[in-house]
Amino acid sequence: MAEKKFNALPGFGLTMGFTIFYLSAIALIPIAGLFLKTLEISLTDFWRLATTDRALAAYKLTFGASLVAALANALFGTVLAWVLVRYEFPGKRFIDALVDFPFALPTAVAGLTLANLFADNGWLGQWLVPIGIKGAFTPLGVIIALTFVGMPFAVRTLQPVLENLEREVEEAAATLGASRVRTFFSIIAPTLLPTIITGFALAFARAVGEYGSIVFISGNQPFKTEIAPYLIVMRLDEYDYTGAVALAVVLMVISFVMLYVINWLETWSSRFQN
Amino acid sequence: MSIELKNVTKKFGEVTAVNDVSFSVNEGELMALLGPSGGGKTTVLRMIAGLEMPTTGDVFIRGQRVNDLSVQERNIGFVFQNYALFKNMNAFKNIAFGLKIKKWKRPDVEARVMELLKLFDLQGLEKRYPHQLSGGQRQRVAIARALAPKPGVLLLDEPFGAVDAKIRQELREWLVTLHHELNVTTIFVTHDQEEAMEVSNRTVIFSRGNLEQIGTPREVYEQPANEFVARFIGVMNVLELHVRKGVARLNELEFPAHGLPDGERLRIGFRPYSVQISSDVKAYRYRAILRHTYFLGVMLRVELELPSGLLIRARMTKEEYAFQGLADGKDVSFQIRQYRVLAREGEKLAPEVAVTHDVPLTLGEGI
């Protein structure tokens, strides 16, 4: 007689069914639609559309600026999270709330604000431009805007992990003779690394998909400050749907591969955990 | 003299965690800091390690005043209650950590770690990460890590707190053996008086930040300095009596109180093993019903209910219980062989009073 399998956590069938339905509706079907659209053109046409010089420049800027912004967020977000978790100081709650600001602010507003700040006559620009730092309508502006929108991801992912660090582990290192610096680099940093990578991945993914803030600060000059999402919108404006889809597919594939690599990196760096 | 504390006080804000404590630990001693939680014993241990600074007073390690020495410079081994292993390092690297900090040469590090792995019965587990080890193995790694750089002193905070009863017993015996082999001055904190009695050479008893008594297990058990110690170490019956005409009374029970004025209150205490029971209701002065028997292994604890409803705890061997033909609900007679008059808290205790008349002592002596 066949025995019915017993599971202590009931509802697997229902929840798994829903998961597949939900993922299909939200992600898989649109993605599949995108790929299907590319079937309307030949492979050579696809390749030609996807690898124009203008497109290549746009990919380079999108992924390059996103990487730099995500790295900056991983580094400075760690410092920010560290300060917010480990120390008590006046105005801590205010600064903590400020971290979420980029989440709530419409990205177009952020882009406009940043563009105005860094423009030649802007608050910051009037001092920075004379010394050669141009924040508006340059690739640097793109990096600044992407750093702004990705910042909360890096901070918010790390905070709970920092809060759960055991004080005794650091004390144990001290009793064994380790200095504060040594303790940080030998014990604390490796423990935080997987989470820092997670924050990095989220900030990176957010940056690759960012559109609203960039169009205002970058100036959108082809070959110079034009990001791939903007180029897609341009193609759509020209009713060149296949051209737009070709760019979108490349963007998507590269993003997926990079996220996959980051994910693997995260698993590798957390090999000592459960 | 390995460790000495002189008039050490530690305040956390308004709260005095440790109040004017002085004691010393001899070279090679295995010392217990015992007391209820919140007694200040862990704070004392942390001050020796340098993890807390005394508010006033001095700490000496091997004759050197270490108040101004950082944790890193004190050359102590510290084992934390939750082990505090480095999660990102395997067992080998955990144990080797202190040696690398002290810039030992690579072959020396390897030899030392291997030696410790063998000593701690951890061979074959050196590549495992902490989450892949059992509770007992983790603790052994933690102790090995603390001992690796050959510290002058080993400090353990509640070393047996986090493991189950059977492993706890094994670990106690193992710690005694280890201490015997290595002979490193060791101080451990515990709230379990049995553990302190069994493992330590000497015990320091704390309560609410005060040092109550320091002595060998036998001393603190047989000559408690005050009521707190008497009640904390082992079980004690405590009675509150009223004096009238030179006799202190509580219900049926009477104790001599020569010279004390009428109306005076007197507290007396006696250990359960001082109560002698007979199934012959005429054998001793007091009558009672045997309410309940608790089986504790070789020993039994019985609860006696006097006609007035007063409850008294007694202790006897299984053999004597059987010999007397005792059972729950049986009428018995009893006497209190030894007792002591309890002073008010903080005052010194009077020596125990033996009741000399009556039958010779039989089984159950000295338990």
Question: Please, could you describe this protein's structure?
Answer:
Chain A is mainly α and 274 residues long. Chain A has a domain at 63-225: Orthogonal Bundle (MetI-like fold), CATH 1.10.3720.10. Chain A is 75% helix and 0% strand. Chain A has helices at residues 12-38, 43-50, 53-86, 92-99, 101-104, 107-118, 125-128, 139-163, 167-175, 180-209, 212-217, 228-237, 241-269. Chain A starts with 11 loop residues before the first helix and ends in a 5-residue tail after the last helix. Chain B has 367 residues and is of the alpha+beta class. Chain B has 2 domains: 3-225, Rossmann fold (3-Layer(aba) Sandwich); 270-354, OB fold (Dihydrolipoamide Acetyltransferase, E2P). Chain B is 25% helix and 34% strand. Chain B contains 9 helices and 21 strands. Chain B has helices at 41-49, 91-101, 106-119, 135-147, 165-182, 193-199, 217-222, 227-232, 318-323, and strands at residues 3-12, 15-25, 30-34, 56-61, 64-65, 76-79, 153-157, 185-190, 202-207, 210-215, 237-244, 247-250, 253-256, 265-270, 275-278, 286-295, 299-305, 311-317, 331-336, 338-342, 353-354. In chain B, strands 6-7-8-3-9-10 form a 6-stranded mixed sheet, with helices on both faces. In chain B, α2 crosses α3 and α2 runs parallel beside α4 (135-147). Chain B starts with a strand and ends in a 13-residue tail after the last strand. Residues 357-367 of chain B have low confidence and may be disordered. The interface between A and B is medium-sized, with 20 and 30 residues.
How does the SSE layout of this entry go?
The complex is a heterodimer of chains A (274) and B (367).
Chain A: H1 12-38, H2 43-50, H3 53-86, H4 92-99, H5 101-104, H6 107-118, H7 125-128, H8 139-163, H9 167-175, H10 180-209, H11 212-217, H12 228-237, H13 241-269
Chain B: E1 3-12, E2 15-25, E3 30-34, H1 41-49, E4 56-61, E5 64-65, E6 76-79, H2 91-101, H3 106-119, H4 135-147, E7 153-157, H5 165-182, E8 185-190, H6 193-199, E9 202-207, E10 210-215, H7 217-222, H8 227-232, E11 237-244, E12 247-250, E13 253-256, E14 265-270, E15 275-278, E16 286-295, E17 299-305, E18 311-317, H9 318-323, E19 331-336, E20 338-342, E21 353-354
Helix pairs in contact in B: 2-3, 2-4
